[in-house]
Amino acid sequence: MDPFSTNLKRRAEQLGITNAEVARRAGLSDRRYGNYVNGVREPDLATLVRIATILETSVDELLGLRGEERVRSVEEVFQERISSALKALHEQDLAQLVVMIEALAKAKGKANSR
C-alpha cells in the first residue's frame, strides 16, 4: 500500500473519525474517498488540500514527504480529536457541549480543592 493511502487511514484513526466521516466532511462520495484510501486512485490538488484540511494535517504529511512523524502526547491527540469532532457539530450542539464542559471543569475544580 502506498504511503498516501496509509497516511489517510492513520490520520483518520488518530482523530477518531471514520473514512465515511472524512468523505462527508470533504464533500466526497464514500466510494470516491474509498478509492483514495485503498490506493486505487489519487485525488486532484484541490481535493487533496480539502482532505488535508479535514484531517488537520499538511499535504506533505499525507503524501509522505515529511521525515518521521512527530510523536504527539496523549493530551495533544485528545485535543486534536476534540477539535475534529467540534467541526462536525451544529451551533445548538456546541452550546450544549459548552455547558457540559463548564460543569465538568467546575466539578474538577471542587474535587481538586478538597
Structure characterization notes:
With 114 residues, the protein is mostly helical. It is built from seven helices and no strands. It has helices at 3-15, 19-26, 30-37, 45-54, 59-63, 74-86, 91-112. Helix 2 (19-26) crosses helix 3. The termini are far apart.
How far apart, in Å, are the first and last alpha carbons?
53 Å
- Shape designation: elongated
Percent of residues in β-strands: under 5%
The biggest beta sheet is recorded as:
none
Stretches where pLDDT is under 50 for at least 5 consecutive residues are none
Order of H and E elements: HHHHHHH
The percentage helix is: 55-70%
Number of strand elements? 0
Category by helix and strand content: mainly alpha
Looking at the chains present, what oligomeric state does this protein adopt?
single chain
Mean pLDDT: 88
Task: Figure out the total of helices.
Answer: 7
CA radius of gyration is 17 Å
What distinguishing features does this structure have?
single chain; 0% strand; 114 residues; mainly alpha
What can be said about this structure in brief?
The protein has 114 residues and is an all-alpha fold. 69% of the residues lie in helices and 0% in strands.
Question: Topology, please?
Answer:
Blueprint: H1 3-15, H2 19-26, H3 30-37, H4 45-54, H5 59-63, H6 74-86, H7 91-112
Helix pairs in contact: 2-3, 2-4
